[in-house]
Amino acid sequence: MKVITVDSLRALPVLSGFFEKLRIENIIFAMDKPEIPGIYANPNIRLIFPLFGSCYHVRISLNGELREIALREGDILCCLPGACVQRVNYPRDASLSVAFMKNCTRFSYREEIETETVCFYHSTRAVSPGGHLQLRGLISFVGEKRSQPTLVKAAQAVFATLTDDLTRESVPGSKALQTFQQALYTMQNNFQKDINREDIAGKLQITSPHLSRLFKTFGIEGFADTLARMRLEYAAELLRETRMGIDEIAEQSGFQSSSYFIKVFKKFYGVTPTAFRA
């Protein structure tokens, strides 16, 4: 098999065509345990789906055991950080793989199923803040045991942002999406403070209803849940990495009371902060 690196002039039309035809019906998660002996555990989140008219056979860790599965059109394999994925060789198998790296997004694909040439394209920048947040939400949904329709919606949001990211490789994105990205950036830098929808809308010089519509159009969750998730992910990190008390963690994470923090934490994670830390 021949592997080549291609530039944007060659890659962008092909990738845009893939995404325009992409249909998502089922999300499968490759876990990090148990490991596949001798197979490299990729540290990056990856999304893999078969090209149209093809299957893709892989061996992965699924539900605590190693299994061989055949991805079909409509399936998306989401590889969590540290997951081992072993391709099982079938001659006509072909897929598009998207790896989210620190400084870029790496796409690997076959331009035609029949060819043995695999093309690699590296974007000029990492996934946009909106896409990064959407990915984190998709990963969080695994532990929250969300339904397939919710997972599919989250994956669709990721690919919508990826499509826009690819468009921005050559032309600027839409003004609405740029405003949404600015909203996320502002929230990420202020979530530890006592902020709300009106505060963020004011900083962006737009109305609160317009901000809500942006989250409905481009986000995987509404404004309130997105802000809560930012705070909870930070709180979860403090719970794992420090011995700070619950009251202090609630305050540091932007919650106005520890009782409300505990209530929201249990809603998202299914356990209290104390049980999460144990």
What does this structure look like?
This protein has 278 residues and is of the alpha+beta class. It is 45% helix and 19% strand. The chain has a 7-stranded mixed beta sheet. Strands 5-4-7 form a 3-stranded antiparallel beta sheet, with no helix packed on it. 29% of the residues are buried. The model has no long low-confidence stretch (mean pLDDT 86).
Annotation keywords:
single chain; 278 residues; alpha+beta; three-stranded antiparallel beta sheet; 10 helices; 10 strands; 45% helix; 19% strand
Largest sheet: 7 strands, mixed
Helix content: 40-55%
Number of strands: 10
What gap, in angstroms, lies between the N and C termini?
49 Å
How would you write the strand order of the largest sheet? 1-10-9-8-3-6-2
Radius of gyration: 20 Å
What portion of the residues fall into strands of 2 or more residues? 15-25%
Structural class: alpha+beta
**Mean residue pLDDT:** 86
Order of helices and strands: EHEEEEEEEEEHHHHHHHHH
Oligomer: single chain
What is the overall number of helices?
10
Shape: globular
Low-pLDDT sequence parts: none
Short synopsis of the structure:
By secondary structure, this protein is α+β, with helices and mostly antiparallel strands.
